[in-house]
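During the reporting period the student researcher (J.K.) took over the structure-prediction task from the postdoctoral fellow and processed the backlog of single-chain submissions. One of the processed entries is reproduced below for the supervisory committee.
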Amino acid sequence: MAGITGWTGGPVAEAVGLASDLELVSGVSRKAAGRTTAEVVGRNGAGGYVFATVGEALDATQTDVLVEFTSAEMARANVLDAIGRRVHVVNGSSGLTADDYSMIERLAVQAGVGVVAMANASIMAALLQRFATLAAAHMEAWEIIDYASAGKIDVPSGTATQLAERLGEVRRPNAPMPTDQLIGPREARGTAVAGTQVHSIRLPSYSVSTEVVFGQAGERLILRHEAGESAAPYVGGTLTAIRAVVSRLGLVRDLHTLLFA
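J.K. obtained the following structure tokens:
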């Protein structure tokens, strides 16, 4: 578990320790390096030691799956470290680019391992994506609003980006007014992701919440996933991905694909 002392990594590590079919063999955290996983997670996290880097943890312990919940800055290197050692990966950190994912897909296939990359590990968020793609087949116009904490540095969020990309696979929304014909700063209309306008809001009290608004003459359909300030929504989806990734080859983008493909 990379990020074992983190907001999401800690609860996921504890859930792994409680699962009868999973075993927590080590953790990664610079500030907790040298301690046992039981000391960091509690008695339900018994199973090994915490290391300063993913490379050190993978070299010291026999591992089937690396679970990555660190940061946008560290995720890419950690995922590549695992693939290079032929270890499956469940990545819950956002911030990876399209080029990163292309490289990860290629290297994972070469190494014979699976990678599940989840911008959002919530099963409800995956359901939002599912319902939105169904709606897009019958609607012609929509936009996305991306809510997250004031300190989240990547914009739009990985959740909003994946939702826009998924909707773009269904169809491109009709723009009532092209941005190059607007008067005023074009930034006021957000940014276009796969043809969808996305607006990012960063304020205290938000975790990661995503809203898609469909509109047509005389009516609107609003679908919204609203996450609270605990990591509880992301535990179940992560365990599902851990169990599934060992039978996969190459890259699976998002929990939605894992559940509904």
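The committee noted the following: The longest helix spans residues 98-111.
J.K. will present the remaining backlog at the next meeting.
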